């Protein structure tokens, strides 16, 4: 990585299988929605000859946004892989969605990658979510570089964009290249280290991105950049492992360019220095420079630590490394359904070599609460493929560090793939909790089976989706990340021919007695032959919240035999489950059986169950029934600037503030108790209240009286 912008791209051929992990780079393109990730990827593909011409987002013709939902929403909604060859290096480019609803796809992309390329628009501010993501990458030491995109935009301001990057990401973010303009138009990039210009010429007549012409920088092009060049060199030297280098440089010694470039590449691979490359993807400017940074600066999978791995008994497996000859271990990072091939799994290999027609062990653990039960199975692989957007190209094998697709495997996103003889489990990556419920139902009884089957397919590829059949309301609820995520899930179900409709989410209320009451249950019927005879008297009194249910027998003189006492209790419990006012379960009451009558022939278990239910209903008609609503404890993490607004909003939601605590990094955790009915859309509303920076988690606490 020299700052020369040299072209190392092999044109005209698609990516080939490589047999050495050192010849692979796995890079996730990250940044907020609209920053220009997808168009940058298009420009790179066109510049390497991987595609004939660039597609457009408006027309839905980009390689990575072939999903119908992406075309409909005009933004990426899924993780997409596009490998390119740069010299002899295979660069796996992972285009990730920038919209917060699809953070699960972003997490999968980061799991599959060894480095991250942050794409920042020269015409827009850096959003807080991108800044937070940078901090996450920093905490795990992931190497990063920055692309300032959209320099062709009318509002583009490179200097301001660079200043925003340095303010958001830190002082180690320094330009490796700067824009070169002619008559106000961007024509190329100046490499600060070498003082050479990548001249892309007149782009107005270009049909596809072309490779630049390399030439020495002219005096007017070099003017004004000496300070930036000096800062770049000092920044690189400061990261050098040679502690004498800075003193020598400050003492006036001319440090060789090869030494500086070597230190630059090492610092980028270590994740301690972050080069900036300006680009205009629509005009194809900067693609060669970006590829050079990815190829020469970013580490290979062999230099990246593996996630934690254990055997099926949970015992950690030590000593694994990215070795094509090592034991087979991989992980499914994305699952799709192809109309011809069936389920297709995108697998990141961490160790070993995967070949077609071999037996593997598939295991999934840790996502049972989201509708993905634990499972273990031995399966035989069919064909292997290299994904290229939505298309699949046959691949003979895949080595440790590479990504490949496997068809007709029963695995789901997050599952581990390993050797049948030595099965292993890869520790799952952090998955955000879906917190926005959407209730759905089949349009007709005949559509219920189709809905169940389609939901299973959609959930298999989306670990951020949680499917729940609420046992109290009997509603089928999809827990989603937000409205956009819900729209994608519903669209995919409908694309499979499922007829469904959304309905209001029912909050699972409960009922209780607000005051003591008495009830008389009389179930007497004569219809010839054996009749039905049961009479019971009960007293009902409320218990404290969480008191549950108590049944007390105070029958004197055996007027009701013990067998029928139990029948009365069964009847009371059955009526409690059905409700006594609005159909919600009754809780927190004490029922005392104080009297009754029996008949020697006509009394029965069924009759006394009916009498018990009638007695509870009569008591309810004479008393005030209190509705109880579920209340959850919430912990909301927001930047300090939004604390006041969030606390005021909590009060408006009938919430009770229980405390605040500093979470570090200018963030505050706000704790409170909030009725569940006020949280149905809180995932979306908190995002709007905090400019996308706020997150929260919740846990059921108790039921409380509904305010009238």
Helix content: 25-40%
**Quick one: how many beta strands?**
36
Oligomer: single chain
User: Kindly, what is the distance between the CA atoms of the first and last residues, rounded to a whole number of angstroms?
Assistant: 69 Å
Structural overview:
By secondary structure, this protein is an alpha+beta fold. The protein has 16 helices and 36 strands. The longest helix has 17 residues, at 562-578. It is elongated, with a radius of gyration of 32 Å. An 8-stranded antiparallel beta sheet has the order 17-16-22-13-14-21-18-19. The chain has a 7-stranded mixed beta sheet with strand order 2-3-1-4-5-11-6, sandwiched between helices. It is 25% helix and 32% strand. Keywords: Elongation factor, GTP-binding, Nucleotide-binding, Protein biosynthesis. Residues 22-302 form the Tr-type G domain. GO terms for molecular function: GTP binding; GTPase activity; translation elongation factor activity.
Features:
708 residues; alpha+beta; eight-stranded antiparallel sheet; seven-stranded mixed sheet; 16 helices
Describe the structure concisely.
25% of the residues lie in helices and 32% in strands.
